[in-house]
Amino acid sequence: MKPIDLTKAAQRYVAEHKLTPRSRRYLLAIPKRLSEHLGTPATTADLDPVTVRIWLQERAEIVGELAVRTDAKRCVTLWRWCASQGWADPPWLNSTELCPGELRKYRPEGAPLPLPPKPPEGAKFTGGSRYRFRGKAPSRPDSGLLSRLFKG
To answer: What are phi and psi of 60, to 5 degrees?
Structure first.
């Protein structure tokens, strides 16, 4: 095992794989966030379960559960690729086992989760990320404003 800088490893992974721009950006953010946690530039030798789990616990204090789970998946993906290149020991945990249990307990007391915005009147949630109207949309409050202003 010959450890290298994790940022360089992530850049090589991105160059060798067809990824969307968003996936590239998120994958390249993993070494940066891990380096911020460690206080030194992260190397592939830092990819061990204890270090990564502590980093994910710290991350859970800042962001939501879904972001932590997604970061764990991306980290394990990069870790496995680095192991296949001979730069790190192979992970024996998957992303679910690597994630700290009960992520909510790591969220500080003073940082409540923001409430989602209320749906517009007449909207029904269909399970997607947006509200969709069923039936006729309500009329606009300013409809006919110009015709009322310019009445002969």
So the answer is: -65, -20
